[in-house]
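Step 1: inspect the first sequence and its tokens.
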Amino acid sequence: MILKDEVFPIGEVIKPHGVNGELSFNFTSDVFDTENIEFLIIEIQGILVPFFIEEYRFKSESTGLIKFEGVDSDEQAKVFSGLTLFVQKKYLDKVEDAEIELNYFVGFHLVDEIKGELGLITEVDQTTENALFVINNGSDDELLIPIGDDYIREIDHDNKRILVRLPEGLLEL
């Protein structure tokens, strides 16, 4: 059985393409192309199910067409519309962190090298020019921490922990 904390999202099925079960999809990572990944995982009725890749091809830098084994008609393909595509986390080392969708980090703990535990990431605010982690620090106040490669020192996917070194004075704002 595949567990939710063992996978991460890499894209989404858009809609069926043609009548032979092929699917149009968008992706945020092409790790399935650069690594020998035999299957993608899709959550169906709360259960993570592996679907073996029969073939795929890219249409653009962020879209492609994919055919899964056993999905051979337009009717079978329709049930996949709008569903998220996942791969196992063991491939995370092969993916650049910038390719991971930011909402993936909701539920991670943010830890500063100097200040220690800052709190739990409860959401990602992408309404501003710079995306922000919204941190619940246990008090009534929430912290807004800019997401930047300059600050992030380490991402521990297994323990859901991000180690940062924030600029001095940022937490006092």
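Step 2: inspect the second sequence and its tokens, then contrast the two.
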Amino acid sequence: MEFFDSHSHYNDEKFDEIREQIIEDTYKSGVTKFICAGYDVQSSKKAIEISQKHEFIYSICGISPNDIPQSEEELWKTIDEISKIVQQNKKIVAIGEIGLDYYWNKENKELQKKAFIKQIELANKLELPIVIHSRDASVDTIDIIKNNIVNKRGIFHCCQLNQEMVKQAINLGYYISFAGPITFKNSKNAKEVVDLVPMDKILIETDSPYLSPEPNRGKRNDSRNVKYVAEKIAEFKNMSLEEIARITYENAMKIFEI
């Protein structure tokens, strides 16, 4: 049984002292492919560096809504740098994580939207899917991807448990990726939202080192914990863990064109 962690951050400083050991242990545990996600220029470069060291790791590059520069001039320069980075590296499989975050940042909504749209344009130019971060911004997120068609579609990563957003995302052809929060005892709507997602559009992730699932909630997360997310989906869907592992693995291979 093999797992594909569709979103992790081994470029995070929390892994600096033990990165290579955890990566090795993760692969041995059965997580035989995973994505290392960038969120600004430096983390994107680090993600590429990590993916180049390991055949089974792929990277995504982009500017997240929580990391965009605070002026349009700097924003365009930053996105241009991401464009150059992506075109020089073949192990980059998507533009991301990109999107909108109105939980942490309410003062720069218009700049977030411009950054999101500009990076959608970049994804279309490079014929890549996108990986979407959307927090407390479901209406604007859906509005943007409705009005700015992404040719290769993409993924709602660590998807918020918002039934209406998930319905619309699925109708637009997007994949839905679930992480540790669906395992939390106080999680609302988890089963209802997971049940909305057809099996050919479902993915699993850890978002390491954040959001460790039960039974490891509160600890530093890594890709070995992706099995707990898969177990919870198997429970909700009344399917075997082996089936969920296989289906989510195949789905990730398909959307990332690996």
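Step 3: confirm your contrast with the notes below.
The CA atoms of residues 138 and 164 lie 9 Å apart. The domain at 3-255 is CATH 3.20.20.140 (TIM Barrel).
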